[in-house]
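Sequence, structure tokens passed on for absentees:
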Amino acid sequence: MAPSSHPFVGTSHSDRGQGRDVGYRRTTDTTECPIHTEDVPISVHDSAAASPERPFVAPHDDAAAHRRPLLPADDPFYRASGGFEDTVPGTVLRSRDVTLAFLGVVRQRIRATQLAFRSTDSQGEPMVAVTTVLLPPGRDRNAECPIVSYQCAIDAITGRCFPSYALRLRARAVGALPQFEFLLIAALLAEGWAVSIPDHEGPRGLWGIPREPGHIVLDGVRAALDHAPLGLRHDAPVGFWGYSGGGLASAWAAEMYAEHAPELNVVGAVLGSPVGDLGNTYIRLNGGLFSGLPALVVGALQHVYPDLQRIIDRHTTPRGKIALARLQRATTVEAVLRFMFTDMDDMLDRPLAEILATPEVRAVFDEIRLGRSAPAMPVLIVQAVNDRIVSVDDIDALAAAYAAGGTSVTYHRDRFSEHMLMHPMAAPTALRWLRERIEGRPIDENRQRTTWPTLLNPSTFRGMLRLGAISARVVTGRTIGRRELSELDR
């Protein structure tokens, strides 16, 4: 086999994990380093993508943990390398160890590795994506370690809100939601599970884009399982969990799983308030308290849909264009505060209803709607009836569509909660449900219990105390340890 002109030599999907026994080592630069066959490949994909004449080396940066993080747009770690498009999805392209910190300040005693890997964008083209993989403290490497992909509510365009940046020590990410969600990520580690935290909006922060988040989530799990230094098994049970914008990404992963990564052992997905219909959400939130959220979606989608971009360019006022440009740099909280009670009607030269009725806009809203395919794994959908951000009617329709398509759906439709509190209050139930799927227990065993309103479930309050204890360790920078939240809902 002649040496390729690319540093990455690709294979087909059928070749996953079937490569030659070629050795590789980690290196701090991007040069190719052929070594002896007894060394351990960094990734199964690395073996599959290599030849004896030109082995592929996934470079590892040992010094990243000691540097202030750069914004993703300025960080070479996120950039594509020549020939990466010839590798299979999930191939680890480079890795580094990083130091995490709560709110960017309180250093965490957690092993964290970031992986840049090959994935696929919404148009089917190769792209580079990044995930942050955490291993539970005190893990027994000889025991099976499940992995849960946790999708943060990035809900922004700026790289400051990407979890790979916002969760790091000395990150400047005021107003980024992943910094607060780290308390729930810690609860996953306390269960004894590994966690993959992907930048599911991709390198451009394309919130609301269809399919692409699912590809990134699935390929991030592939990369984590294939990265030999992490010591995870390829048949390890895999779960998904996310809420709001993270629930939307988790739903795309659940829908894309059978088509994109059927070899993964995905046992269940918890979809918390997964939006369902972004078009309906845009119309309902515009002009209200959370009008900045749909404005962020439009600001992201214009980068992908040329027809939508033309409409924005043609009909947005100069003041409106300045406002949309500012959104490109705003964190989620900043956007909500700046756009509070802002009506997009005031930024257009034509009525908003008329713009939304155009074929171009309707086509975009149709394409970004969930429910086109039924997940092939069991799902738990969590939704508050009194949610003022995500309509329960949209989630009712999504649950019905999934069930009609053959998905095993457990629907926690909570009558006494709302959007902000639903996620932490439902955490004991969500983690118990995931543990039951990981252990292979019958889905119907606790289905009725799972649908109880959180305020009427005694485990909610015990779980909040346990979550508070875990959070206290995060806030004070102590080791999290094994403190299962799920056991309180058994």
User: Anything to note?
Assistant: The radius of gyration is 22 Å. The chain has 17 helices and twelve strands. Residues 10 and 87 are 4 Å apart (CA to CA). The first helix runs from residue 44 to 48.
